[in-house]
Amino acid sequence: MRTISKHPRTMKLLFVCTMWLLFVAADVSAYAFQDDKKGDAQDKTITDQAEYDAYIKALNETNAATKGAAMIAFVEKYPKSVVLNDALANALGAFQQAGDEANVTTVAKRLLEIETNNVRALAVLTFIVRQKASANNDSKLAAEAAGYADHGLIAIPGFKKPDGMPDADFAAMKQSLSNIFYGAIGFNAFVSKKYAEAKSPFLKALAVDPNNILDNYQLGISLLMMPAKDSTGLWYVAKASSLSKNSPAMHKVIEDFGKSALRNIYKTDAGWDALVAKTAKENAPPVEATAKAVSAKKTVKK
After folding, report:
1. 61-98 pLDDT, tens per residue?
2. Torsions phi, psi of 44, nearest 5?
3. Residue 207 in contact with residue 179, Cβ under 8 Å?
4. The whole model's pTM is what?
């Protein structure tokens, strides 16, 4: 009899935006997709020696891709194992670490078949599907991502803290997950041109991560496209511009849109650079920040 104790462990967006999402995945994984050597379950007992040995061998594999494959092989051989969910969770984390999107998606869906409120599986599916939707503003995929996100937000209150994880880290993990979910819901409204509906979820996402380029950019566009145009949208577009300077292709798309929107509202783009510089030092727009940032330039031009 063997007991397993788990250990802690823009209108038209260009494809380049997707690459930014891939970069963010690495940051999210630090919390959301940890190896499940220690988690929220009680110690589990494997009574079969061969099953125990197979699980421990897969668990101790150091190569991410090999570990993921070993965990899936274990699941296939022992589909009724007491550690079935743990094996799938470890496979999910390993494939995510290896950058194997196809297997991550497959394992996440399989986890949800067994555990419908698995928050991490919902988060990874939300993230991946939104990533695909962002490449071409695909409304069908955006709606699919939002569906996972809605389910995820419902499941988060029941998400138990893994054993040994500090409270602060657990709170940060839940915030990271919420950020993924709210961003996807906002994106779905954005793609559907329901710009007023996009505002609230995007603001909730940005309250967690004010430096999310796409959420800033898409919120900015949404505010500018609402029937009662909100010029605060310029601040969010400028913020996205300040954050995207290390990604030239993305930066040009955002910059061009921002200057065009500024000219449309104020008949000049002379205050754009000052606004971008200002937003780089801020996490949220001050009251009437955008109007103040361009008014002086406009007055001088007159």
Report:
1. 999 999 999 999 999 999 999 999 999 999 999 999 99
2. -120, 145
3. no
4. 0.80
Distance CA 213, CA 241 (A): 8
Q: Tell me the torsion sign for CA atoms 248, 254, 256, 262.
A: negative
Q: Is the distance from CB of 28 to CB of 68 less than 8 angstroms?
A: no
Task: Give backbone dihedrals phi and psi of 115, rounded to 5 degrees, phi first.
Answer: -135, 95
* CA atoms 234, 238, 239, 243: torsion sign: positive
Domains of the chain and CATH, by start? 1-192 (1.25.40.10), 195-302 (no CATH)
The vertex-125 CA angle with 77 and 12, nearest 5°, equals 150
User: Measured between alpha carbons, how far is 239 from 282 in angstroms, rounded to an integer?
Assistant: 8
Give the position of tokens 């394992």.
107
Cα(285)–Cα(294) distance, integer angstroms:
14
Digit-coded pLDDT (tens) for 223-273:
999 988 898 999 999 999 999 999 999 999 999 999 999 999 899 989 999
